[in-house]
């Protein structure tokens, strides 16, 4: 069942980079003290990338996406 959920999540991007090149999927790959890493895709090369979101404040309300980190 988990594989099915991951396949469905991969089909639907939940965010895009400001230039539209990178897609973010709702698949969390890892989490640390200052950033969360999601599965992403470079739409120019069709290569899977890590979409990293850096936590700017302690409440975690502002994130800076770092594509292909």
UniProtKB/TrEMBL annotation:
Source organism superkingdom: Eukaryota
The record's section on InterPro entries has:
WNK_Ser-Thr_kinase
Q: What is this protein called?
A: Protein kinase domain-containing protein
Task: Please spell out the taxonomic lineage of the organism that makes this protein.
Answer: Eukaryota, Metazoa, Chordata, Craniata, Vertebrata
